[in-house]
Write a structure and sequence with these properties.
There is one protein chain. The chain is mostly helical. The chain folds into two domains: 297 residues, no CATH class; 41 residues, no CATH class. It has 14 helices and three strands. The chain is globular and about 50 Å long.
Length: 356
């Protein structure tokens, strides 16, 4: 039974994140996008803040971000936790839950683009093809629906995915100096503070809305935000990164099923086709790259780490080298690390910090 717990945790996380799109769509007519985001973050920040404080008291390990890391924490708290959530809520004023989930899940490609541009990881052919396929899918959704209404929803969802990608890279930098729980709890708290001016409107709208809207806001903060994060961290610690990363593909499918079951909504045929293209693009971008074979070694030249020229595919751009314990450092050699493999590691690590 113990061996099944990580898999069970992963299933719960996927269902929780998928259900968030459905709940947002369900209570959208009664609560505006910004107040709804504030309600979710108030609940989520309160729960995560308490857990973070208890963890700090129990372990005595408090690693607060400082300097640039603190500035990045404030940035992704405002952009990711606050604005991303607002954009998803607003997108679902125009699109059904399943279509929104399909569009938002192009975020891993955004991360790859940013890694290529700012982390100097390049743009291999598969990544470029994945980008083209995914945005072709977004275009199919935008131009096959109800004119401006669907176009606005697509723009909002893609903007949310863009913020997601930017913020994953920012949080990745922050977690070099602090732990994921601290980074996430602080991000949620900052997001709630940024949207605090909309708290009075939240309470006014909830007072006039059906009781189910209040229950929905509480659910969004407790389950897809706080509980899902904790279970996600547990699953990551006991499951291969490739399994956890690929499991995110289940979120749009589950969103479509839940939306059909609870809201009697399904994407149009064109919307479903466009969404499938989005996910195919993500899958293509994540395909293994051909490069210099991992495990090949070159003579230690005594100089700084650098590129090794030669090879096929991505290897022509130079294989990345690592020197250290367990990687050939004690034998005086450097191990060649596939740049595509390194990019996948970075993306997997970024997806570990995912917030839906």
């Amino acid at each position: 039974m113990k061996n099944r717990l990580p898999a069970l945790a992963l299933v719960i996380v996927m269902v929780a994140w998928a259900s968030a799109f459905v709940v947002i769509r369900g209570i959208g007519p009664h609560v505006s996008p910004v107040p709804l985001a504030e309600g979710r973050l108030l609940v989520g920040a309160a729960v995560l803040g308490v857990i973070w404080a208890l963890h700090a008291l129990y372990t005595g390990d408090v690693r607060l971000p400082r300097g640039r890391a603190l500035a990045l924490t404030v940035a992704y708290g405002a952009l990711w936790f606050a604005l991303y959530t607002v954009l998803v809520n607003a997108a679902e004023q125009h699109l059904d839950a399943g279509t929104t989930a399909l569009l938002v899940n192009i975020a891993p490609i955004i991360v790859a683009v940013l890694a290529g541009a700012f982390l100097h990881e390049g743009f291999p052919p598969l990544l470029t093809a994945g980008i083209v396929i995914s945005f072709a899918g977004a275009a199919v959704i935008a131009f096959s629906g109800d004119g401006r209404r669907d176009g606005a929803g697509v723009a909002l969802a893609v903007a949310a995915a863009l913020l997601y990608g930017i913020s994953v890279v920012a949080q990745k930098l922050v977690t070099r100096s602090t732990d994921p729980l601290t980074a996430t709890a602080l991000g949620a708290i900052i997001g709630a503070i940024v949207l605090l001016p909309w708290a009075p409107q939240l309470f006014r709208e909830l007072a006039a809305a059906p009781i189910g809207s209040t229950a929905g806001v509480l659910y969004l903060g407790l389950v897809p935000t706080a509980l899902a994060f904790l279970l996600w961290a547990y699953a990551l610690a006991h499951t291969p990164a490739g399994v956890t990363a690929s499991s995110s593909y289940a979120v749009p499918a589950l969103s479509i099923l839940l939306s059909w079951g609870f809201l009697a909504e399904t994407p149009t045929a064109w919307g479903l086709l466009g969404g499938v293209l989005c996910l195919v693009g993500v899958a293509v971008a994540r395909l293994p790259r051909r490069s210099a074979r991992p495990g090949d070694v070159v003579a230690q030249d005594g100089g700084p780490q650098g590129d090794v020229r030669g090879g096929a595919g991505d290897g022509q751009r130079g294989a990345r080298e690592e020197l250290g314990e367990g990687l050939g450092g004690r034998d005086g050699v450097r191990r060649i690390v596939d740049p595509g493999e390194q990019r996948d590691r970075d993306l997997d690590r970024g997806e570990r910090l995912a917030f839906r």
